[in-house]
Design brief:
Length: about 160
């Protein structure tokens, strides 16, 4: 399986925000693989406010061999004091096939290579055992629970960049 990350363009984000399917060329988007409305809105806002695209635009996680978008991931804004938050989701039909691991591994490599990030944070719902297992496999450490900006109880998972 060959997984690559491809940033979603502003034009595609605007199309998705308007409820229009973006042009995918030879790719097919698996059901549940494209970003949800709140991710699209956040990305458009961050990009419009001048945030660097690598920190604002979500990435499609693409299975190159099957030519299918299997999910998405991205940063939730530019790093602050060496810390950056990520989010991710995989289409249900592609759960437990290594797609999430391959895609998020590449996102973590991008964060480390930037030299602006020392820590990556993932906030995970307490009932999301699959995401917790993925975070563990990727080397994240669970550091307790907190209330996220939307008022939801989440687990805080942290990954340290190698120095």
């Amino acid at each position: 399986m060959a997984i690559v990350l491809a940033p979603i363009t502003m034009d595609s984000l605007r199309a998705l925000a308007d409820g229009v399917a973006p042009q995918l060329g030879e790719l097919v988007a698996a059901e549940g693989s494209l970003p949800p409305a709140h991710v699209i809105a956040r990305a458009i806002r961050l990009l419009s406010d001048g945030c660097e695209p690598r920190w604002a635009a979500p990435f499609n996680i693409i299975d190159v061999e099957r030519r299918v978008i299997v999910g998405g991931c991205g940063f939730k804004g530019a790093p602050v004091a060496g810390s950056v938050e990520i989010g991710y989701g995989i289409a249900p039909v592609f759960h437990r096939q290594g797609c999430g691991y391959a895609g998020i591994s590449q996102l973590l490599q991008m964060a480390a290579a930037s030299r602006l990030v020392t820590e990556v944070i993932a906030l995970i719902a307490p009932e999301n055992a699959a995401s917790q297992a993925l975070a563990t496999k990727l080397g994240f450490i669970h550091r307790g629970e907190r209330i996220d900006p939307e008022g939801e109880l989440v687990q805080s998972w942290h990954w340290q960049c190698a120095s």
